[in-house]
User: What shape does this take?
Amino acid sequence: MSESKRKFTVIDAVIILIAAAVAAFGAYKIIPSILNPSGTEHITFTVMLQQQDQNFADAVHEGDKVTISLTEKDGGIVKSTRSEPATTIAFNSMDGVYANEVVEGKTDVYVTIEADVKTNDLALKTGGTPIKVGAEVPVRGKGYASMGYVIEIND
Assistant: This one.
C-alpha cells in the first residue's frame, strides 16, 4: 500500500490567511469595548450654527432643553447663547484677494450645551451622536432646529 503525504498548496495558504484576517478584524472590533469600559461624564460643549435668521437667534434661550440627535431623544440644556453677524469668505476680483464679508440679515449663533455623555478612550457620545470638535450635530429645541458644528468641548 502506498501512503500519500498531504501537500500544502496555495489554496490552503489563502484559506489560512482569510481565517486569520477574519479573526484579527473580530478582535479589533471586540477587544476595545472590553478593555475600555465606558463611563458617564457631565460636559459642556459649544455648537456654532452658521448663517441663521435673527428670529432663530432670538428663539434660543438659556435653560432650553435641546435634543442633539436626529433619531433618539438624547439631549442637553442650553447654558449660554450668543450671536454675531455672519461672515463668509469672498473673492475680491478687483484686488485679487480673499476677504471676510458680512452676510446681510444672517447671524452665527453659538450655543453652549451641557449634557451627559458616555465616555471611553475612543469617543464621547450622547446615545448614538458622537461629540467631537468639528462634528456636525443637530440642535433641536422648542420652536427651532438646525445643524451646527461642535467648536469647543469643556470637561
